[in-house]
Amino acid sequence: MQKVRLEDIQKARARIAPYIVQTPLRPWDYLRRTLGLSAPLYLKLDTLQNTGSFKVRGGANKILELVEQGKRPTNVVAASAGNHAQAVAFVAGKLKIPATIVMPEGAPLVKAAATQDYGAEVVLHGSLYDEAFAKAQELLASRPGAVYVHAYEDPAVIAGQGTMGLEIDEQLTAAGIPRDAALQVVVPIGGGGLISGVSTALKALRPKTTVYGVVCEAAPAVAESFRLGAIQVSKPGRSRTLAEGLAVKKVSPMTFEYVRELCRDVVVVTDDDVAGAIATLMERGKLVAEGAGAAGVAALLSSRVRLDPAVPTVVVLCGGNIDMNAVSNILERGLTKSGRWLRLGILVEDRPGELAKVASRIGELKGNILEVVHDRTSASCPVGYTRIQFHLETRGAEHASEIERTLKEQSYTVERSS
User: Fold this and answer.
1) pTM of the model
2) What pLDDT was estimated at residue 236?
3) Based on the domain organization, do 60 and 179 belong to the same domain?
4) What is the number of domains present in the chain?
């Protein structure tokens, strides 16, 4: 297999320039302080890219390269969980080329709607990307002159994604970090096209770059393959995840070669990690990221990646197309994981004044009561008692533990629920 070179990425940058924007590289002192780093930490905000993710870089390069070579397709076909779909639809629409996109049935509605808005025909099929891919191959065979635009397993797509690395290099130089300095980069992995392209560019320009990949728990095969040094077959498991853009079950032989050669480590984040990262980005960073986009931050906040505190770090936020219907659930999970929201079941005697007494204790401890529910009928509740379910707002995990501990010390029977 011929690997993508720095020269290929530089050509891609010139080719796709009219279709993309150079996204900011923003320092984030909150995360730097939280992690105890002495060197700067930056977020690469491809959440602000055209179509809301990095995918437009690779999609544009593939289609424009075909046009440049005199191979303009009659139709483009793609399979995607959402971001690649929008990218292909966006570029094809600009070029007046019909596009057919197959998306998993569970793809966020916001992504399916946006893909249609860009002018593509959307076909919903299967529960995972791999099933959508198989359907796309069927449709491709029925459309003479059509070309399939793969989400990651294509040198032209990898080269396009690598243009993010060129931007990061230039932005770091402008920030006073020379090319001969050490660098740490954290990049989410779905199919692997992004980390392959970015790692190739940065390793060529900044040889002291260390790259960490991040996958989701619903699709951990790349991490397992990296650990064992050979591609592993995906095990059956759940398909739903907050990081649906990373839920690619089958490891790509093409991109795995880049991952194996260029990465220091590949770690797995849970949905709770991701929810916490999304909430933190919104509250402390004033940034909106989807699950896959927030995976790098999730890996750092959950200590799944151990950084050198003296080396500058870049975390790639690769997508911002979050389904707003899911935001409230995601924020609740994030606030609960961080201890900002606390749910306690407290058993008290069923008599007047007990609720007021417990509420007063919680108020003295500076807990803010958001919701109260009485449960007298549960089989676990003894006769003559009632279980009061409190939903509390706290200052954080330490404060939540203090409230729980103090109530227990005051002889209350307390059960904490997630």
Assistant:
1) 0.87
2) 65
3) no
4) 3
Distance CA 101, CA 81 (A): 10
Does 299 lie in the same domain as 214?
yes
Q: What's the half-sphere exposure (Cβ side, CA atoms, 13 Å) at 67? A: 17
- Kindly list the averaged pLDDT for each block of 10 residues, start to end, along the chain of length 418: 93 97 98 97 98 96 96 93 90 95 84 90 86 91 92 96 98 98 97 97 98 95 95 75 85 96 97 91 94 97 96 97 82 79 89 89 92 79 86 91 90 83
- Residue 255 per-residue DSSP state: H
Axis-axis angle for helices 155-174, 253-262 (nearest 10) = 30
- Look at residues 315, 335, 355 and tell me which one is the last residue of a structural domain: 335
Q: What are phi and psi of 153, to 5 degrees?
A: -90, 65
pLDDT at 418: 65
CATH number at residue 201: 3.40.50.1100
Rg (CA), the chain: 24
Contact 348, 385 (CB under 8 A): yes
Residues 173 and 34 in one domain: yes
Is 1 inside any structural domain? no
Beta bridge partners of 416: 344
Paired sense of beta strands 263-269 and 209-216, if any? parallel
Q: Within a 10 A sphere around the Cβ of 74, how many other Cβ atoms?
A: 11
At 49, list the tokens: 């890219």
Residue 125 counted as domain residue:
yes
In the prediction, which pLDDT does 329 show? 80
CATH number for the domain that contains residue 379 = 3.30.70.260
**For the chain, what's the residue count?**
418
Token match 């891609």: residue? Answer: 12
In order, the DSSP letters of 122-167 are: EEE--SSHHHHHHHHHHHHHTSTTEEE--SSSSHHHHHHHHHHHHH
Q: 406: burial class by Cβ within 10 Å (0-12, 13-18, 19+)?
A: middle
CA dist list (Å): 231 to 224, 249, 251, 293:
8, 12, 7, 25
Enumerate helices (H) and strands (E) in the chain, giving the number of each. 15, 14
